[in-house]
Amino acid sequence: MVEGQAGLTWDKWRALVARVEDWGFAGLYRSDHFTMSHVTREDSLEMIVSLAYLADHTQRVHFGPLVAPLSFRDPVMLARQAAHLDALSSGRMILGVGAGWQVREHEMFGYPLLDKKARLERFAEGLQVISLLLKSEAPVSFEGRWYNLRDAEILPRPYKTKILVGGNGITQTLRLAARYADVWNGVQLSPSAFRERAKILDDYLYDAGRDSAQVKKTTATFLFFGGDANALEQRVARFRHHPAFAGKTWSEILAMLRYEDAAIAGTPDDVIPQIQAYTDAGVQELMLQIFDSDDVTGLDLFARAVLPHFG
After folding, report:
1. What are 184-238's pLDDT values in tens digits?
2. Is 229 helix (H, G, I), strand (E, B) or coil?
3. Distance CA 26, CA 60 (A)
4. Does any domain span residue 220?
5. How far, in Å, CA of 289 to CA of 163, rounded?
6. How far is it, in rounded angstroms, from Cα 86 to Cα 95?
7. Which CATH number covers residue 250?
8. What is the C-alpha R_g of the chain?
9. Which domain holds residue 50?
10. DSSP structural state of residue 157
11. pLDDT one-digit tens code per residue, 20-45
């Protein structure tokens, strides 16, 4: 999963798309942000346009946003774009959606983030709109506070675009996942925390009359990977500006990222047991979030030294 606001360019994206299937990865995902949350000026590649390129230049990997915020993405247009990307890729698009969270990009471009309560209400309504448009077999109508539909449908049919709901919230997000999602994606959860959330989701699925197997359970977490100390130091370099890491060595920063953000970090021998812990916790797909989208050498090493252990 590439953090597209962290310096991603067309040259870097084309290089990843050209290699991802040969490397053996199951999917290639994108964040959906205008900019980083802290003050910085880095290149940022638009999500939908980049996924259209991916859909047309790969044959096997599934893909999608992790996640598209409904705080600046219109759910009607997003559903339409997802349906057509799904058709272009012969069914490989996974539409990941979330409520939105990053203050900086909303203030920068004038999108209303809203307070948490209203934001989640808007998200729930937008998710219902997306589900109606993508899952209904006939035109649909809907009247809400934020969105309205009247005999609406997206043509041509058929399409079976999967909906991914991202987030860890027990009282609202997991309930929405149980109602609407084909895939649930936890965010920066340790293996034990993932197991706990997955059990709660199963309870909500039971209450909703759905089987546990109807929702694929996945999680996303940061990857800081390298073949040696020098490579690892480069991977954490961008985090040195954070006050919490002031005066810390790169190895201390890695340890903090592992502990506080459930990051997977280290050399091949280090990360294999870390990933295995997620497998043991019941994770069905692990999305590894990378900031250095030009680290082709590191990804090539990961594909050769780590992926074969989880084929």
Report:
1. 999 999 999 999 999 999 999 999 999 999 999 999 999 999 999 999 998 888 7
2. helix
3. 8
4. yes
5. 20
6. 9
7. 3.20.20.30
8. 19
9. 10-310
10. P
11. 999 999 999 999 999 988 878 899 99
